[in-house]
Amino acid sequence: MKVVLLWLAMVLFLSIMSFNGSIRARVPHAEQIFHFTIYAITSALFYVEFLRSRRPFFRKNAMIIAFVLASGYGVLMEVVQQYTSTRRFQVLDIEFNVLGAAIGLVVVLFLRRRKK
After folding, report:
1. pLDDT of 73-107, one tens digit each?
2. SS (H, E, C) 61-87
3. How many domains does the chain have?
4. Domain that holds residue 45
5. CA angle, corner 21, sides to 23 and 32, nearest 5?
6. Residue 95: inside a domain
């Protein structure tokens, strides 16, 4: 769980930090790619952590819980940005957060089945 908590802290830091358009000007759709990737990793980390849980409820529902927590954290980070002077709330970011969370889980499932 330590890795997940460190990851969430990093996401919080990146969510409130200003990038002054640094990479946005050079890479088309950089912000959407960033949101998608961050939340794909977030959902995958949650999923793997819940699969390791000693509690059957978390193991049985790992995918649903991971998706809800990753997506919810993405929404929360957008709300937090609304109260900063350097970032702003964007529905499009939430959409890419949720899409990334879903695809992250699909990738983890694919990799786990391929491994068997």
Report:
1. 999 999 999 998 888 899 999 999 999 999 999 99
2. CHHHHHHHHHHHHHHHHHHHHHCCCCC
3. 1
4. 2-7+30-115
5. 65
6. yes
